């Protein structure tokens, strides 16, 4: 694209530039045509506001204008802050030392370039943005009279706007991008435009931001490589049994139920951080449910089907494979919600097939679901159901976008800057590959889950939901429980997950790990990272629990192992997948997990 001149400066080749721009124009036309065709076929495309954001902001504005004194006060405070900023900037330009009026949070990586601090102009731009952002978010948060849901929605989408408007997201106000543009004579922007078109083409007109090098990873080759065999399958799942690594194993196998919102190999990314491999090495006979990536043929599958064809079918299959009537079960996120339903279902039938249950970041009481609640109201659910009923499923990209918006600076705007403004390719990162490997949701199941649990919070009501003719009552659960939540979880807030301790009848140990929804769970002992908190008491208030908890350094994995051994039974000879009554179907990780939605 560029050639070296005698002065060793980069110059754009006019012929190559013309060729590149012609290609860009042709690709853009194809993308727009394809996008408009898809929009014309989408029954919800004509809906002006499917997220019902406009009504929320109109209500907020009406409440705000009813108390103009507050708005005047906020504006005066902003004006005073700006006056201080202007004065400080002028003094800096005269060589004086000044203290900043506004500073970014310590973890805010948008302003890590040294020019944001050292250059007076960029420092002014940065502080001006921070003051405006603080003012805007403060105004909408202090509006009185809004119902809780509307207030959270206004706050969430205000933050989305504030994040989008950051000066780091624009060429002329990002010093790192300006420097790259000068050094490459604009080649970074041309490369970034091509990256943008690549992402639009991959998303068929919708922006599918590339977060990592997708060619650097392959499921079964360099991620999800713990050896094992698929020994059983249904329409909804494959059951993977892993090869033993010890001559003796615990009598009762360990069944892991991952969420079907994501793929199971988050628990088996690499050998050094694989919870699956670690559990095998501790002497467990490990079985994992690998959920199907459903298409329109499975649109009718409901939550009850996931229970029948998932954990209940798996427990029967494991008995055939190992001879053990009981299992120890672990459920992660939505897989944990399904496990709770399964425990209540078995209790209602008087069956004790599960000796112990472990929950990772699991919601059962959805009274306060955190920021995910922003997306749950009648208008949004109706629009979502219209789309799902037409396609037969929820597109995995929709769910991925929702989760990414909750951490927009890290999972959206950092890639906009890196890929489109700096023109760089994203770094190979296994976790982000997994994050991009999205899964679909069957229409019937997802509608039931969102309405009965998130919107109506019926799971915590005795008999509030019914699965396959059985009324579910969590208070009937007497199975010993180990519950792991994470302190910085933005998907399943730990204060909400804690509620399960008050809803079951059996013994329950609640443990809180540092970090978030993924890193707090996938935290091998060898890494010696983070910490966790324990407390033998179960007060109703989670904050009271934390105040009385003991902090322990390192991974919770070893604490869980000590607990799990109590219910794992005696030592027996190791079981090899396929050697029992269930024969091996194919090698782990199986074929279901390899199906990509995008």
Automatic annotation (TrEMBL):
InterPro entries membership: AB_hydrolase_1, AB_hydrolase_fold, PHA/PHB_synthase, PHA_synth_I, PhaC_N
Location(s), subcellular: Cytoplasm
Keyword Heme: no
Gene Ontology biological-process entries: poly-hydroxybutyrate biosynthetic process
Pfam families documented for this protein: Abhydrolase_1 (PF00561), PhaC_N (PF07167)
Signal peptide: none
Transmembrane regions: none
Domain AB hydrolase-1: 281-523
Key word Transferase present: yes
Molecular function terms from GO: acyltransferase activity
Record key words, sorted: Acyltransferase, Cytoplasm, Transferase
Any single GO CC term annotated in Swiss-Prot or TrEMBL for this entry: cytoplasm
Annotated Poly-beta-hydroxybutyrate polymerase N-terminal domain residues: 108-279
Protein name, per record: Poly(3-hydroxyalkanoate) synthetase
Organism of derivation: Paramagnetospirillum caucaseum
